Amino acid sequence: MGKREIILDAMRELFKEGKAGSASVSDIARKAGIAKGGLYYYFRSKEEVMDALLEQEYEDIIQACKALIEQSEADAVSKFALLLRSYRGSYVDSSLDEYLHMPQNAALHQKSLAKILSSLSKIISCIIAQGVEEGSFICEYPAEYSEVIMSVFTFLLDPGIFPWTAEENILKMKAMADLLEKGLCARRGSFAFLYAGE
User: Fold this and answer.
1) 76, 131 Cβ separation under 8 angstroms
2) 3-state helix, strand, coil in the chain (%, to 5)
3) Cβ–Cβ < 8 Å for 120, 65
4) Region label for 78, one of left (φ > 0), alpha (ψ between -120 and 50) or beta (otherwise)
5) Are residues 94 and 177 in the same domain?
6) In terms of domains, do 30 and 90 share one?
7) Can you tell me the distance from the alpha carbon of 94 to that of 92, in angstroms, rounded to the nearest whole number?
8) Are 56 and 50 in contact (CB under 8 A)?
9) pLDDT digits (tens, 9 = 90+) for 127-157
């Protein structure tokens, strides 16, 4: 493991211990077992360390979703279900998630949401294109539809931004299923997986 990864692991540990917010660059270096100057070789500030850690966490989620879809030979609707379940079930450490939702970290949180939105939108766009090929969808704007879909999942359904009740979440998922079925000219009930079993 390289020093950069050791520094990121140290930052991750500080998050788990609840000390990340107050930790200094010296604290991070000490936790990593390296000199402060060694940390500055890889990162210019504590904020850069945090940014890199978040980038890594979200990149792991994106790559896991991408691999899942690439390995699947399912039809477009099944791939949609697979991707959205995988994304909704993905895990970012709760201490890291809590840190992201602090008001002073809004810019960092927005950057993370934008990364997820743009990366997963590309995968959804390919799934929509597959559905058009299969004849199960009609869509002239797959890239734009994908961005709208991911806007709902990354922003509207982020519990740290909107603490909806379980009932409110189900209603939103029913509305989303209805929008997708009508917008993609998909068979009625195709997107029931969004709220079934909730």
Assistant:
1) yes
2) 70, 0, 30
3) yes
4) alpha
5) yes
6) no
7) 6
8) no
9) 999 999 999 999 999 999 999 999 999 899 9
